[in-house]
Backbone:
């Protein structure tokens, strides 16, 4: 490539930037209610959002972190509600343990079934995921309907996910769907309120996979 | 699929949920400093983040919205800094005008060049994008180094993007890179502070493409 100026070698490496960011987060967050094993997930969520309020709004089932690490180390499937979540999740750490990341919302059979039933693709994709990836990690950052359907299937005893990370963003149904999730007695990671989204759920999954890798 | 219960047809359609969300946003936002043409972009950013503070922090070059609509209608390339941004952008409206969405950060030649020069893939990908997609829309949600490199190339007169949407999130360099962007006298959309991210930049691009389509 021919540009006027030459590249300069970096004075600060990307790894150093991440380390510095994590220091700032810990310093500015100060006291917090999270356990030692929950904190790396909160920290990475704040890193991805620059939003301390969002970080502080997180809620963990007591078994959530262990269940997530276990699911990753056992190579269980990870199900994303949308493609942005799927591509954002760091694959090498997941694949090292034999795992894989799936998204069903654009599958032709899901699209067809949703039309036929006059319902959302997110709901039909959740049902497909429960059949194909039960015991896995469900990572929902967008579709409250997907989360509500998954909760319903858990209550009916049909779905047995290893961990639900449910943090959809939005003004209609998102906060309510997370309230319902927080009532379940199975491993979940969620937050209180409207905020959330794909980048937030990706941050939580990536934090878990880093913790899984550290176990060696 | 065989589940205990049957699907119920939806009582609220997804389109209605979006409409209702937009009403809530307009009501809760109240008075704001944005023009009529800027507001749909702010509204969609708030919709994607549930964060009014982030919406209010947005800054527009006076020609930004027109330049973005024009670039889309002329079928100019859209360049994403990361794959999450690429997959999040709604393609049918872009492709209708002959446009396409690109991401260079994982190209083998970019990875190799970054290693050779001891710099970030984001910087090298920006240089490649300037060669292959100049005049297009640069959508940067993650990498402050990509944005700073693009700003440098604009100042040198090497890069002539149609519009820069620069809203990287982060604790180190992100806010500073956006301050630099806001000093340029070419079309830009950005925000003040640490917040931003892939979903935010995607929301801005999708808002522009909806406006482009409405022009008929």
Residues:
């Amino acid at each position: 490539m021919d540009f006027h100026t030459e590249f300069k070698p970096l004075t600060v490496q990307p790894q150093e930037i991440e380390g510095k960011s994590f220091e700032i987060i810990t310093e500015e967050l100060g006291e917090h209610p999270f356990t030692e094993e929950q904190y790396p997930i909160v920290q990475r969520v704040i890193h991805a959002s620059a939003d301390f309020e969002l970080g502080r709004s997180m809620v963990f089932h007591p078994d959530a972190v262990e269940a997530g690490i276990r699911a990753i180390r056992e190579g269980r499937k990870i199900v994303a509600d949308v493609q942005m979540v799927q591509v954002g999740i760091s694959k090498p750490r997941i694949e090292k343990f034999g795992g894989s990341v799936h998204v069903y919302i654009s599958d032709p059979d899901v699209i067809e079934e949703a039309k036929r039933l006059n319902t959302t693709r997110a709901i039909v994709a959740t049902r497909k995921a429960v059949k194909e990836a039960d015991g896995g990690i469900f990572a929902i950052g967008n579709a409250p309907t997907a989360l509500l359907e998954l909760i319903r299937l858990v209550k009916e005893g049909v779905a047995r996910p290893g961990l639900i990370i449910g943090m959809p963003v939005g003004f209609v149904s998102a906060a309510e769907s997370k309230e319902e999730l927080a009532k379940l007695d199975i491993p979940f990671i969620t937050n209180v309120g409207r905020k959330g989204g794909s980048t937030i759920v990706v941050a939580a999954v990536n934090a878990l996979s880093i913790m899984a890798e550290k176990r060696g």
Observations:
- The radius of gyration of chain B is 18 Å.
- Chain B touches chain A through 50 residues (CB under 8 Å).
- The CA atoms of residues 77 and 100 of chain B lie 5 Å apart.
- Residues 198-214 of chain B form the longest helix (17 residues).
